Amino acid sequence: MTNKEKCTIVQDLLPNYVEKLTSDSTNTFIKEHLKECKECTDILNNMKKDFEKENNNIEKEVDYAKKYNMKFKKMKFTLLIVIYTIIFIIIAFFTRNFIVFKGIANKMENYLQSNNYYVRSYFYQGWNASTTETWVKDENMIINFNNELSHVINNGMLYSIYGENGYTIENNTMKVRAGEFNFIEMLKNELNSPKSILTYSLSTAIVNGKDCYMLKHTNTILYFEKSTGYLVRYEELEGFVSPNTNKENDLVYEVQSTIYDYKFEFNQVTDKDLEFDLSNLKQIEI
Fold it and tell me: Of 208, 206, 193, which is closest to residue 97 (Cα–Cα)?
C-alpha cells in the first residue's frame, strides 16, 4: 500500500478518530501513520480545533437553553403566585360579603317575626320632610303621620282617619304589619341570594351614631346596624335637569337625595300605646 493510499484511508477515518469512535487496532494504524505524515497530522489538528469550537458552541447553546428554561420557570412560578393570590383575594372578598349579607338577612328574619314593635321613619327629600310612627302589638296597630293619628287596626277593624273630616271603618283582611317591614323583607330576600355579592358593594360607616355596614347598589345606599341588623338608613340618589339661574337657556344636571332614617324598638309596646279616641270625629260611611 502506497503512502498516498494510506493517507486517503487515514483522512477518511480521522472524523471518527477525533470523536473517539474507532477501534483500538484502527487507532494504532492511524497513530503509526501520523508519525510519518505531516499532512495528515495537520488535517487532524485542524479537525480537533473545529471539533472543540463546535463543542464550545453547543455547550454555550445548552447553557443558554438551561438559563432560559430556568428564567421561564421562575417567571411561570411568579405568574402562578400572582394568579393564585388574585383568585384568593377575589374568593376572600366575595366570601366575606356573602357572610356579612347572610348575617344581616338572618337578623332581619328574626325581628320580622316580631308582633310587638315600634317603628319611626323620617323622610327627607330636598325641603320636604315627614315622620311616620307605627306601634304594633299582637293584631293591633296605630300609625301616626306627622304626629297626627292616621290609621288604627283594632280587633280586626281598620280605622282610616281623615283629620277633621272624620274617619271610616272597614274589616281588616291584611296582616297587621308596619309598612316598613314589607320593604325590609324584600331586602332580606335579596341579601339571602348569592347574586347579592355581585349586586351590592360593601363598606362601613357611622350613621346616627351607630356602627353600620354600608351596602351600595347603583344609586341606592343601605345602612344596617352591625350588632342588630336593623335598617338604619335608606338613601336614593336621583339625578334631574334644572334651569341654570345664572345663564339664560342653560340647563344644569343636579343630584338630589331621598333619605329614610329608621328607628326600631321591640317588645316595648303596651296596651296604653295603642289607646285611641275618635269621639271628637264623625264616622264617614263608605
Answer: 193
- Angle of helix 38-112 relative to helix 24-36, nearest 10 degrees, comes to 130
Query: Length of the chain, please?
Result: 286
From CA 140, how far away is CA 157, in angstroms rounded? 9
CB–CB of 131/121 below 8 Å? yes
Query: Residue 278 corresponds to which amino acid?
Result: L
Reported as half-sphere exposure (CB side, CA atoms, 13 A), residue 202 has a value of: 18
- Using an 8 Å Cβ cutoff, are 137 and 273 in contact? yes
Amino acid making up residue 193: S
Average pLDDT over the chain reads 83
Distance CA 198, CA 240 (A): 27
Phi/psi of residue 41, nearest 5 degrees:
-65, -45
Task: Give the tens place of pLDDT for each residue, 58-99.
Answer: 666 666 666 667 776 778 778 888 888 888 888 887 888 889
Closest by CA position to 10, among listed 1, 21, 31: 31
pLDDT tens, residue by residue, 1-32: 566 676 777 667 667 766 777 787 777 777 77
CA angle 243, 248, 250 (to 5 degrees): 45
Model pTM above 0.70: no
- CA distance to 44, 138, 174, 208, 229, per residue, from 264 (Å): 103, 16, 22, 13, 11
> pLDDT tens, 198-216?
889 999 999 999 999 999 9
Residue 171 confidence (pLDDT) above 90: yes
114 φ, ψ (degrees, to nearest 5): -70, 145
Hey, what amino acid is at 29? Answer: F
